[in-house]
Queue: 3 jobs
Job 1
Amino acid sequence: MSLPSDCGQHGGWCKRRGKVYRILAGILAFIILNLLIILIIWLALRPSKPKFYLQDASVYAFNVSSPDNLLSSTIQVTISTHNPNARVGIYYDRVDVFASYKYQQITPATTVPPFYQGQNDIDLWSPYLYAVSVPVAPHLAEAISQDQSSGFLLVHVKIEGRIRWKMGSWVSGHYDLFVTCPAFLSSQSGKGVGDLPVIKFQQISTCSVDV
């Protein structure tokens, strides 16, 4: 005897299966519609990356001890950030600031408290970057000494963080933030306390931003 396989003999089961399929199709259509709406809003608003500027760098100490090649420094940086978007806010959930010299990090990261930046807002940070007896490679210690003797140093202030975009009630997922700000410093030997070099910030610099 052959087994029945058509819906005519299994009407109840077929109806239940059809109902499940319709529910799943409705849920899928709802998800696709919402994703499409988000995509259209995103493409229409086109949020621009925040802009960063290094306004100042006050160097209170920047010395390398020999022969141990240990760097000690105290730098206060002033950074301004501008949200250029007229309809999009930015959540800064994590912001770490540190200094680097010739691609080597020379200070531990200083964390800026999380904050929200509204449309077209400008915010100013002035974190201190400290380094106490941080080991540096011998060639870097020599390069720092040579740059100080020549009267010019190029240090990069770097920012790494996590941000989210806010458009109305919708908030995006997290995006990685990478900012690099060149700090042009002049060094005048024997002008400071105890004949230590005086290091001065030269000019406001525009930072490169990757999101």
Job 2
Amino acid sequence: MRVSTKKMKARTGPCYNRLVRQSSYDIAVIGAGSFGSWIAWHLRRAGKSVLLVDAWSPGHARASSGGESRLIRMGYGADEIYTRMAMRSLALWRNLFRHTEQPLFQRTGVLFMARADDPHSSATGQTLRKTGAPFEIVPGGELARRYPQMRIEDPRVYGILEPESGVLMARRAVAAVVEDAVRRGVVYATEAVRGPLGNGEVRTASGEPIRAALFIFACGPWLPKIFPGLLATRICPTRQEIFFFAPPAGDGRFAPPHFPAWIDFTDPRGPYGCPDLESRGFKLGFDRHGEAFDPDTGDRRISAAGLEEARRFLAERFPDLRDAPLTESRVCQYENTSNGDFLIDRHPEFENVWLVGGGSGHGFKHGPAVGEYVCQAIVKGGAGEPRFSFASKGERRQRTVY
């Protein structure tokens, strides 16, 4: 398949059409987030006719793939499967951005802060070494000297730096995948879609049939709403607050290349963030599941308690930002499986329906590898990864992926 490599002109996105009644496709992908868009991209590249459908536009304001930025890091403790998926995904993201001439990956590096007695971080170093992912151990004394922006008083704290990792510009990156998929022949339609009927037929919310041999639902936090009987207790969306704080005027210490993206494994709340990119502010969030959240009706204003907690953390870890003004904020959602592993499996009742989701707060970066995995499973068949199976998804929250 030959695709033009000419630089893409600035525009708001791909051509968004209403569903064409007479058309039929090999595969219809429902949901144009990081998972769905990359699934469509890979399937089209494999020669399939593909319809990609979303109720809104790629990376829209309520999507788990929306917002400005997402970390892409290789370290996952002893979870080699996700380290290898992240390595593959980073290569595919960078290839796409080179092809489309869009600078949507910022190689800021990613810094893990950890204590010397933390087994998860020790396992991270071992897995990175085994897989060949570039990393550097930054001893405690060196960590404080290299990054004086941070207050580090515990002598046991050290760093693991992934110099080739960084930040994906999220909503624009998803739009870039969809645009390239459309150029390759994927058809995009803006439609709300219902779950399959008893005979496996799929229709839009207005009742129009979608004609395809196979359906892949990759709807993020909407999966349990479309399949309530199956997933309402197995995928649980939670409310997550994100904050952006402005560094002092003329102070570049909190922007690349002076400071990387980061995750603080010394704090059980899981603080993480990005440096000041595009002058939007220093990003801070907590990788801790919030309260249950409805992606359609949930209030997307940050809480006073959340902002106060963020400021307390800044005062402790980044004291020069303790009084920094809040420049932006965002309420997004995780869609959590019981243990944090993705769901990638056939629907147990419909042979022509696949379910792909459960990003669990770490899925965005893996979109390219997930798309490739789904494409190979459909085109080539074979046994799937047991950790991604529907059978492995329980109703009791026991998170094991960090």
Job 3
Amino acid sequence: MKWLIPLLLLTATVQAQPLQVQTSLSADSALRPLTTQQQATVWGITPEEWQRYLTLKQQARGVWSPGLDPLTTLGVEAESDHERQRFAELLVRQEYQRLEKELAFQRAYDAAWQRLYPGLTPLKTTSASTARVSLFVKDDCPPCDSLLRTLLAQQRPLDIWLVNSEGDDNRVRRWAMAHGIDAKLVSEHSITLNHDAGRWLLLGQSKIPVALERKGEQWREVLP
């Protein structure tokens, strides 16, 4: 009988070893970097396009636009209209899905606040913010002009979306000139001028004008 306990312990140790090895292998797999195929799949592109993106990052585009996402990088450096259109559509789909998730979380956050602290206004920081503001405006809109002047006076980084531009670059340029948008700020990317492509309906909930600021995964309205 005196050998029974050591024998049982030895058996238990031997049986436990494969589990320890399996756990170690699983941890190693979790820490392993994604393959080229996996990275490409995340963005909906081919492995060859992913390699081209990595190459472009090492060239002038990587210096001009550090941190640019793969789809925008490939779209800007596209070699044909068909290719450019494809990357644009991929980016729109990705942005739509991302915004849907962020808005769903925002709604859940607001509901949780009302449930846990009914009657209390959500806390807001009183310190000056330097986060970028997405401003949605239209032509011939005095309230839009007023909000624009306020944000420009605050020297906030602005992404301006002209809702009724109809994809017309000249229309955006005329609007910018009429509203005194500083070309230097545009060249420095402190201000960007953009055609709205459905973002207003998704984010602004049809309110015009509206200024929104991203806080982590949430969008908050910026009040003047």
